Amino acid sequence: MNRSGLIALQVVGGLSILPYPFVLLSNIMSIAAPGRTAASSLIWIALSFYPFVWAALYIFSWRAMKRGSVGLAFGLSSIPAAATVLAVGFLALSWVGFFLGNKGIGPGGLHARTFPTNNPVLDSILLANQDIQIGHEPSRAVDRALRDLDANRQLANVGIQPYGTPLNLALRDLSVSLDGAVNGQQLDRIKLVRGLASRGAMLTPREATDLRKSWLLRRALYDGPVRTSEENPLVWRIVTHTGGSPFSIRPNELPLLNRATTLHGTPLYAALLDNRPDICHAIINAGGRLSASEQSDPAAAAALQSLN
C-alpha cells in the first residue's frame, strides 16, 4: 500500500515536468534579456534544473522507504506534488478570471480596476493599452475607453501625474517609426488617439512642448499614404538616415532646404524630430530654416532653442 501511494504521489509531482521545454525556453529568454546580470539571473538558472531536483527527491524517497522511513519518503515526494497542485490552481484561477471577464462579470470585466488615478478616463485608457499590448480584443478595449470618456466629458483634459492628460497617456504607448510607417497594434492605438482628439481631448501647453509627442499626434491624425519621399527627398533622407558616415547637404539638395512636407515638415524640423544636432547644424549652415507655422509650434520652437 505504501509503495502504491508513493508511486501515485510521484506521478502527480511528475506532471510538472511536462511543460519543462517551454519553461526552459522562457528561462533562457529571461537570462538573455538586456540589463540582466549574473546575480539577477540566478533564479532563472536554478529553475532550469528543477527536473533534476525532482529526480533527486524521488531517489531519496525510495531509499527512505527501503529503510522504513515512510513519513520521510512521502514528505520528500510531496514537494513536487505540491508544486504541481499550486501550478494547476494558479492556472485554474487565471482561466476562471479570464472567462468571467469575457462574460463581463465583475466590476471591471476582464480586469479589476485597481489603478490609483481616481480618474475613470485615465483608468480606462490604461486598461485599453494593456489589452492592446496582449492582443485581447483591442478594438473592444478602445471602444470601452471612448465610452468611458463619453460618460465623463468633464475629465477629457484632466491630468494626473505621472500619466498626464488622457491624450498624453494615449500617446505615451503609441510607437511609430520616424519614417511614419504604422503597423500591427499601433493601428488600435491610433484609433484611440483619434477618438480622444475628436472628443476634445488636448495636450497641456507643457505636454505640447514635447516635439516627438506632438509629431505622434500629427501622425495619428494624418490620413493617407506617407508621401515624404516624393515631396522632399532631402527630408526623406533625413528620416531614414541610419548614421554611420557624417551627414552633409548635397549640392542638388540646396533648393530643398526650406521645402516643407505634409507629415515631416521642413528638413530642419525633421532633423530636430530625429534629435540629430549634427544634421540640424548642417542644415542651418546651408541656409535651412523652420517654416512660419513650425516657428509658431511650441514643440519645434523649444527643440530649436535647446539646440542653440
Specify the structural class.
mainly alpha
Question: Which spans of ≥5 residues are poorly predicted at pLDDT below 50?
Answer: 101-113
Largest sheet: none
Distance between the termini: 85 Å
Strand content: under 5%
Give me the count of strands.
Answer: 0
Q: Tell me the radius of gyration.
A: 29 Å
Apparent shape: elongated
* Total domain count: 3
Please provide the ordered H/E string of secondary-structure elements.
HHHHHHHHHHHHHHHH
Helix content: 55-70%
Mean pLDDT, to the nearest integer, reads 84
Report the total helices.
16
Q: Could you explain how this protein is built, in words?
A:
The chain has 308 residues and is mainly alpha-helical. It has three domains: 2-102, no CATH class; 120-221, no CATH class; 228-307. The protein is 59% helix and 0% strand. It contains 16 helices and no strands. It is elongated and about 95 Å long.
